[in-house]
Amino acid sequence: MMTELEQPQDELRYLTSALREWVLWQQASGAHGLPRAERSALPSVEAPQELVEQPMPRPTVRKPEPIYIEPLPEPERTVVAPSRPERIELSAEERRERLKAMAETAGQCTRCSLHSGRTNVVYGIGPVDVEIMIVGEGPGVDEDAQGEPFVGKAGQLLDRMLAAMGFNRNEIYIGNAVKCRPPNNRVPEDDEMASCLPYLREQIELVRPKILLAMGATACKALLGMGGITRIRGKWKLYQGSIPLMPTFHPAYLLRNEAAKKDVWADLKDVMKHLKREIPKSR
């Protein structure tokens, strides 16, 4: 049997009153909150050893041993030389027609200042597929008037030289380094020769001579890019690495220097020897 104090409503009333007294005491004393136990008074609780975080061990990294791989053999390389453009084969008739057309083109040429004083362009004369092509310096007064190379006194001497070799004018091709007469028969300037050089190269390509006979320093400079005719006279050269070229004195030089004729004759005999032709016995 429960006593009167032990009744639930009495117990609740008691607790409420006690709490009210405690709050009033806190307000009066200026305290607040619940009393806290000292930290040192609290029992220390250690975490189980198995729960304590342990440092992770560093993995041992083994350096891989090098693996030797035998290199593959290099493929064989075939060195192919650059091919030269194929030469368009023209018949003799086509080349003659081409020479004629080039002469007409040269007749209208104004590439250099020589055109202003010319009477005629002296392009060249002769057949194709010849044994000898003669290249001189440039037209003189007579050549400018007639439009044909080597027709003055130097040309007459050239005809005699050819006859001594067993040739006549109609069997060879004759041209000049420049196609127009320089004023007062002076030596052509470099730019004048450069302007005419394409015509000269085209002539040689179309004529296809076996030998080039370069007469005088100007012809040698145009064909070989070098002068000094006294130094190179009588010494075989190659034009563009293919056509044998003999440098010798110009007939006009021989008219002023008779003693040089024997040197030129020696050069001409060397040309005949190269062509495997005999010197005429009448010489």
Give a topology summary.
Blueprint: H1 8-29, H2 92-107, E1 124-125, E2 132-136, H3 141-146, H4 153-165, E3 173-176, H5 190-207, E4 211-215, H6 217-224, H7 229-232, E5 237-239, E6 243-248, H8 251-256, H9 261-274
Parallel strand pairs: 2-3, 2-4, 4-6
Antiparallel strand pairs: 1-3, 5-6
Key terms:
single chain, 283 residues, alpha/beta, Uracil-DNA Glycosylase, subunit E, 6-stranded mixed sheet, 9 helices, rod-shaped, disordered N terminus
Summarize the structure.
The chain is α/β, with parallel strands linked by helices and 283 residues long. It is built from 9 helices and 6 strands.
> With helices defined by DSSP (H or I, 4 residues minimum), what is the helix count?
9
What is the CATH homology-level superfamily of the domain at 93-274?
Answer: Uracil-DNA glycosylase-like domain
Number of strands: 6
Order of helices and strands: HHEEHHEHEHHEEHH
Mean pLDDT: 84
Gross morphology: rod-shaped
CATH topology of the domain at 93-274: Uracil-DNA Glycosylase, subunit E
State the helical fraction: 25-40%
- Per CATH, the architecture of the domain at 93-274 is 3-Layer(aba) Sandwich
Strand arrangement, largest sheet?
1-3-2-4-6-5
Radius of gyration: 57 Å
- What low-confidence regions span 5 or more consecutive residues with pLDDT below 50? 1-5
At the first level of CATH, what is the class of the domain at 93-274?
A: Alpha Beta
Range of strand content: 5-15%
| Oligomeric state of this protein | single chain
Distance between the termini: 178 Å
For the largest beta-sheet, the strand count, sense and barrel status come to: 6 strands, mixed
Helix-and-strand structural type: alpha/beta
